[in-house]
């Protein structure tokens, strides 16, 4: 047991999780911004923007995240010489954040749109019929309900994002959990089960509160219809 | 182009139509401009040279790289989706069991594998099988990890599918003398399975996409083949594009197929739906509150299961 704890300390398991948390934080922030813009495109009445939004979602939802990550490193950085920092490790970190953002923005867009779709047309018709103009109807009647409907799907996207930060291994981020776990098992195969369960439990601890929080929030704020 | 109807906007009048037209033209110019900027930048870097692209799509590339890679992807995904269905059925029914112990164990297993990233499981099983000296350890690493994750998602689909059935189905089963287990197996689960066919198909898309994670553990699937081809000719950008287009076309068609299946299922099982609704109306006098409570709860369950499944890697 003591020997195993020494191994955990030697390979800095907590540090590895911290890298994944940072990846998840920045990617969540940026994909929320990009996804909201895409959702605005898709619910706008302008056909060209609708087309752009749905083309983006179709392309990136049907593409494996691994391809995007490999593309960021071997295509964008290796072949096109596109870099985000002079330092190797920092550069790979931000390339991974960009890859995660591109991929998850499509899911954020769909989550927000599904929130808007939970609002029955009758709500909008009622708002108009009592004389509310467009902005007031959107601000007072439709969007508050839409945001509540979007909580549960957005929570699911966040959970998927946290788990998907491990794919940063494909973007050469060597300090994140799946790469560290691989190195640890390769050097200490005698502890293979303990190592896997350490990392697995770490993710259970990270993911479960997000799921519980989003479920309880969406239940508490659910619109009774 | 068909204008999508949204709840936010009323049918436009003449002035709004003019504004939409203006916005449409501006939007189209901006989108086309962005695409043009990307193409020009690529051209400046010499990435649009025909030789780079021809190398990525010639007969040798297909015969020696994409096709074997595609077959490897399909081999892993096909075994994984079948395994995931079996795993999902066993654990989904287990979660509905009337025995507390079975229910708890199945619940813990399903929740555990749903929370652990697929890549961690792949790396673990790959190294485990390799250490044990098994042949093609990376293939089995991919398959086992995909079965465990997607099987847990399917288990949730089974559970929410059974919860979504009208309660009369179980009551009818019990009243003709079936035990709860028998009614579950021969009455409720078969109906839930048909209702969840479209969701299962969307899960196949997730499996196909996740199989690309195999590239990280050196399983020679489509992405890995494209990478090898590209690093040979130093046109990895182009070969990755070809692989990505292949994935997009396959997954997009599967998604469309799932949608069509869902619509046609809704049509054929429409009769059960209306009778259920009719029963609900008839039962208003007896237990209106109970009926509506159950309905909203089930809808919530199904929604969570569905979106949770769709949002995997």
TrEMBL record, chain A:
It comes from Isoptericola chiayiensis. Residues 17-214 form the ABC transmembrane type-1 domain. Its main location: membrane. Keywords: Amino-acid transport, Cell membrane, Membrane, Transmembrane, Transmembrane helix, Transport. InterPro entries: AA_ABC_transptr_permease_3TM, ArtM/GltK/GlnP/TcyL/YhdX-like, MetI-like, MetI-like_sf. The keyword Ligase does not apply. This is ABC transporter permease subunit. SUPFAM superfamilies: MetI-like. Gene3D superfamilies: MetI-like. Belongs to the binding-protein-dependent transport system permease family. HisMQ subfamily. It is a multi-pass membrane protein. The keyword Transmembrane applies. CDD domains: TM_PBP2. Pfam families: BPD_transp_1 (PF00528). It is found in: Cell membrane. The chain crosses the membrane at residues 23-41, 62-80, 92-112, 191-212.
Automatic annotation (TrEMBL), chain B:
Residues 290-313 are annotated as: Disordered. Keywords: Cell membrane, Membrane, Transmembrane, Transmembrane helix, Transport. The chain crosses the membrane at residues 21-43, 63-93, 105-127, 139-158, 236-254. It is found in: Cell membrane. Residues 70-258 form the ABC transmembrane type-1 domain. The keyword Transmembrane applies. InterPro entries: AA_ABC_transptr_permease_3TM (IPR010065), ArtM/GltK/GlnP/TcyL/YhdX-like (IPR043429), MetI-like (IPR000515), MetI-like_sf (IPR035906). Residues 300-313 have a biased composition (Gly residues). It comes from the Bacteria. It is a multi-pass membrane protein. PROSITE patterns: ABC_TM1. Belongs to the binding-protein-dependent transport system permease family. This is ABC transmembrane type-1 domain-containing protein.
